[in-house]
Specification:
Keywords: Lyase. It holds the Pfam family AIG2_2. InterPro entries: G-Glutamylcylcotransferase, GGCT-like, GGCT-like_sf. Substrate binds at residue 120. The radius of gyration is 15 Å and the shape is globular. The longest helix has 13 residues, at 118-130. The protein has helices at residues 14-20, 71-81, 118-130, 135-142, 152-160, and strands at residues 3-7, 25-33, 35-42, 48-54, 61-69, 85-94, 99-107. The chain contains 5 helices and 7 strands. α3 (118-130) runs antiparallel to α4 and α3 packs parallel to α5 (152-160). A hairpin with a 4-residue loop joins β6 (85-94) and β7 (99-107). By secondary structure, it is α+β, with helices and mostly antiparallel strands. The chain has a 5-stranded antiparallel β-sheet. It has one domain (3-163): Gamma-glutamyl cyclotransferase-like (Hypothetical upf0131 protein ytfp, Roll).
Length: 164
């Protein structure tokens, strides 16, 4: 059975997601209304990862990419995202106005002070550019404060994803 995933973090990048789930199908760019993007999910690697949280701002919205997955891919993605995220059913709107019932991963372990790694934000920024989000949105991602990964091998591997 097909399921739809709304990716707003590093998996917006098709290079990143398809390296993990080669049979996933990119449906298109979508908006999650009433939420804001943060990078406060406490990852097991000690850095911040993408998260969305409800916002009181009536104009708040998060851009992301909808992918179609099969059940086996959904199971793999659940394992990749791990127990620090809850899989939540949401409604998103594709840029053509079509409503899509999807799921996304919302962090259950957060720290407002944590910073994402620079390589992680490269994935997010590349995904935002690929999704053709508004310039102000991609610029905000690009200017988010980051830190360097002390695991230089992991960092080099992650940076290389977009070199292919």
């Amino acid at each position: 059975m097909a399921v739809y995933n709304f990716s707003f973090g590093s998996n917006m990048s098709s290079s990143r997601l398809l390296a993990r789930l080669p049979n996933a199908t990119r449906i298109g760019t979508a908006i999650l209304a009433g939420y804001e993007l943060t990078f406060d999910m406490v990852s097991t690697d000690g850095s911040g990862k993408g998260n969305v949280r409800p916002s009181n701002d009536k104009n708040a919205q998060v851009y992301g990419v909808v992918y179609q997955l099969n059940d086996a891919e959904k199971t793999i993605l659940d394992a990749i995202e791990g127990p620090r995220y809850d899989c939540v059913d949401i409604q998103v709107t594709l840029l053509d106005g079509q409503q899509v019932a999807a799921h996304c991963y919302i962090a259950n372990t957060t720290d407002a002070q944590i910073l994402p790694y620079d390589w992680y934000m490269q994935h997010v920024h590349r995904g935002a550019l690929e999704a053709a989000v508004p310039n102000a949105y991609s610029d905000a991602i690009k200017s988010w404060p980051t830190c360097q990964d002390s695991d230089t091998v992991r960092a080099a591997t992650e940076f290389a994803v977009h070199q292919k």
